[in-house]
Design goal:
7 helices, two-stranded antiparallel ribbon, 199 residues, single chain, 3% strand, mainly alpha, 2 strands
Length: 199
């Protein structure tokens, strides 16, 4: 299949954990039908279009199902934690001995991206759906910072990295929190995906 793993990943970030397998599977089936009936490129464009159009509604559904107020509170608390980490990094970086701008930017970016993964992971463990809201807020925050500060003095390449890498790191943290969550209802899953009833 030509459709991107990135599209599957974006969809998995947006869909509520209970619906992930069905949503990704349904789109994959429709994609396969479209590839057989026509062009793989057109089928890929259709697939991406479905993912982009569906993501906002799927995120909203995940928030609604998880209890919107609690989910929103956990996501906002995660945002406050992330803002504190970023302010601490900025203060620490400015106290370092002078170095070229690239090394400071790389160190700060690596720490911020790692903290986005950790904070999103923690919010997803505390409240399912909170990491999806946190990811959306991270994307909005990055775009607003770049827009309001005229690119924040960053080159176009660095701006694109910020727009893609920041929300992707937050999404990764959410996916990791979902992957380590124990299955519900006493069902055990082996490392190969076989399902058995709990004793």
């Amino acid at each position: 299949m030509i459709h991107s793993r990135l599209a599957d990943w974006v969809l998995a970030c947006a869909v509520a954990p209970a619906d992930r397998e069905a949503a990704v599977g349904d789109l994959a089936e429709e994609y396969a039908i479209r590839v057989r009936g026509g062009s793989a490129l057109r089928a890929s464009c259709w697939y991406w279009g479905q993912v982009v159009r569906s993501a906002p509604w799927l995120i909203w559904t995940a928030v609604r199902r998880g209890g919107w107020f609690g989910t929103l509170c956990v996501a906002l608390a995660a945002c406050v934690c992330q803002a504190g980490v970023e302010l601490g990094i900025r203060a620490a970086i400015t106290r370092l001995p002078p170095a070229d701008g690239n090394s400071r930017w790389l160190v700060a970016s690596a720490i911020v991206l790692a903290s986005l993964v950790v904070v999103s992971f923690a919010s997803g463990r505390i409240r399912p759906g909170a990491s999806s809201v946190f990811t959306a807020v991270a994307l909005i925050a990055v775009v607003l910072q770049l827009f309001l500060r005229n690119g924040a003095g960053l080159s176009i390449g660095r701006q694109l990295v910020a727009i893609v890498a920041g929300p992707s790191a937050a999404c990764l943290g959410g996916l990791l929190s979902w992957r380590v969550r124990p299955p519900a209802d006493g069902i055990k899953t082996s490392h190969r995906g076989a399902v058995s009833s709990a004793p």
